[in-house]
Design goal:
alpha/beta, 126 residues, 8 strands, four-stranded mixed β-sheet, 2,3-Dihydroxybiphenyl 1,2-Dioxygenase, domain 1, single chain
Length: 126
C-alpha cells in the first residue's frame, strides 16, 4: 500500500546562511546536516533542502508563484502564536476559510511562501 512518510522540498536561495537562520530561529526547524552549499532542515516530518544558488531568480521575483508548500497540521493556533512571538514574517493572518480550513501563511527573507492549514473540525476539538 502506498504511504507518504514525509515530504522534502528543495529551495534555491541566494543567501544560505540568512535563510537557514530564518528557518531555525523564526520557524523552529532543526538542522539534520549540512554538506557543500546545502542545508538539510526539518520541522517534524516536514523536510527541506536549501541550496546556495546565487544565479537563480529569487522566489520574491516570481510573485504569486513563490508558494512551495501547504502543510496540513494539527495545533495550528499554537504554532501561529509561536511564529508571532519569534517574529516570523506572516503574510496571511490566521483565519477560518469557507473551504473548511483554518489557515495562515509565512514567508522567508527571499520570498518563499508556506501555508499552514488545519481542518476547522479538528481545530475546534483541540
Amino acid at each position: 500500500m502506498f504511504k507518504v512518510n514525509a515530504t522534502q522540498h528543495v529551495l534555491a536561495v541566494k543567501d544560505l546562511e540568512k535563510t537557514e537562520s530564518y528557518f531555525l530561529d523564526k520557524l523552529g526547524f532543526s538542522v539534520r546536516f549540512r554538506v557543500d552549499g546545502w542545508s538539510f532542515l526539518s520541522l517534524g516530518s516536514f523536510h527541506l533542502m536549501i541550496g546556495h544558488c546565487p544565479d537563480e531568480i529569487s522566489a520574491r521575483d516570481t510573485h504569486e508563484h513563490s508558494y512551495f508548500a501547504y502543510v496540513n497540521c494539527e495545533g495550528i493556533d499554537e504554532i501561529y502564536r509561536d511564529y508571532q512571538q519569534r517574529g516570523a514574517e506572516i503574510f496571511q493572518a490566521l483565519s477560518d476559510k469557507p473551504w473548511g480550513l483554518r489557515e495562515f501563511g509565512v514567508a522567508t527573507p527571499e520570498g518563499h511562501r508556506i501555508m499552514f492549514g488545519e481542518d476547522i473540525a479538528s481545530s475546534a476539538n483541540s
